[in-house]
Amino acid sequence: MKAVCWHGTHDVRVDTVPDPTILNPRDAIIKVTSTAICGSDLHLYDGFIPTMQSGDILGHEFMGEVVETGSGVSNLKQGDRVVVPFTISCGSCFFCERDLWSLCDNSNPNAWMAEKFYGHSPSGLFGYSHLMGGYAGGQAEYVRVPFADVGPLKVPDGLTDEQVLFLTDIFPTGYMAAENCDIQPGDTVAVWGCGPVGQFAIRSAFMLGAERVIAIDRVPERLALAQASGAEILNYEELDPGEALKEMTGGRGPDSCIDAVGMEAHGTGPMALYDTVKQAVRLESDRPQVLRQAIAACRKGGKVSVPGVYGGFIDKMPMGAFVNKGLTMRSGQTHVHKYLKPLLERVQKGDIDPSFLITHRLPLEEAPRAYKIFRDKEDNCIKVVLKPFATAA
């Protein structure tokens, strides 16, 4: 089959690789009908996530049709259309039973490796390094899905791939980011980053009752899309976010701040340059410019929500501000399984059509170009969907 494979920093290729096979009775094989490039994939593309190996198959946002199931999978049958959570979860461990699906104890075969980095291992993830299990990803024609008796959700008739594809990751991720803010009526929420997760966080904050959402970015098309959802916008290259947010909230600051950027944050001024240099020479693994701003800007007693991916170690953090303002921070990989059905219902009711985000639809064989235009924000690119069985025009 054809699959998008990582071969090094800024080097992804479409290779011919062996078809996946059933390895465990709880496995299923999915024919991928739609798959997407996530902002988190760019951390792999840019070489900032350790334990990648040449030839690893990328991709964790995918859906498709069931073509084969193991003997332990009774909930799926051949031909079912399914969306697949990017987090791989067993369904029966201490964490899964508490709806903490991305913390599953049984799905990362390389847990020992993650424990060296983080103390404990999160769940396995599709297509996201050997640290997270070494699972083949879904930017491919076919993919093996472990624990298929737990993860995949059947897609009801009448819904297109593009309406449900983002249930696999970025819609639940944005929603959980907003939910972690414990939004109360009248709240103001500031969202750093108007990429795909940020866009869903903005819309989710409104769905959960925020009165105002203030979106911060520098890319015109992203800011325009945020503004179209009802958000107020700030271009951080034109205004200092901290000062602007203080002015916009009567000096108090936002009730909640969402860092939808993570480890490759851009910025202006000496601290942004400091982070860029330290990350380049591997004296700091992540660039926490946005996280610093969110902590500094948030009102006293407020909440900082971090859906943005961080992979390792950061420094120059304003812990004095965090402690003395009495802030609460919540983060984590998304517990996708928890949100699949509730968010599917919102799509069915017409509360949101997630396809609003898609700007580029390309065949799988154009993945190398797609990665570049997505990373470099060329051609007004916000979100790319790849079609494994489409042919190039």
TrEMBL record:
The record ties this protein, via Gene3D superfamilies, to: Medium-chain alcohol dehydrogenases, catalytic domain, NAD(P)-binding Rossmann-like Domain
Q: PROSITE patterns recorded for this chain? A: ADH_ZINC (PS00059)
InterPro entries, alphabetized: ADH-like_C, ADH-like_N, ADH_Zn_CS, GroES-like_sf, NAD(P)-bd_dom_sf
Q: Which CDD domains match?
A: FDH_like_1
One MF annotation (Gene Ontology) recorded for this entry: oxidoreductase activity
Q: Which segments constitute the Alcohol dehydrogenase-like C-terminal domain? A: 196-264
**Keyword terms of this UniProt record:** Metal-binding, Oxidoreductase, Zinc
Q: Which family does it belong to?
A: Belongs to the zinc-containing alcohol dehydrogenase family.
- Protein name, per record: Glutathione-dependent formaldehyde dehydrogenase
